Amino acid sequence: MPVKVRNIVKMLTICSLWQDSKHGYELMNEIEEKTGKRPSASQIYPFLDQMVEKGLLEVEKTGDRGKKVYSLTEDGQEFVERKMDMFSDIFTATLENNLKVCAHCGCKVYEGGIKEEIDGEELKFCCKHCAESYKSQS
Asked: Domain check: are 126 and 81 in the same one?
């Protein structure tokens, strides 16, 4: 049975491990920091065990208490990269609808930024410097 990544906890778990080796508690803290909700041990450890069984993770016991640190294997790295490629189109399509382009420099703004009404038209800028620069050139 292949490893399935069907929820945000699993996706964030593999993305976190792609960045660096971690133990389960670190993964739970990081996911809580990113989502505002703490995943349970029953969401994390069975998934990690499944990835170990499939050869996607390796485990090293460290410290006096033998804390398990999980690291992606070479196959695990490839697995995560395939998942990221697959999900990147979804993320891009979702975010593109919410992006605004700065009227001055052309950078894409997801949230924040500055709205200015100039010559009866509402324009979006990434920062106050772009807004001021645009107004001074008009």
From this structure: no
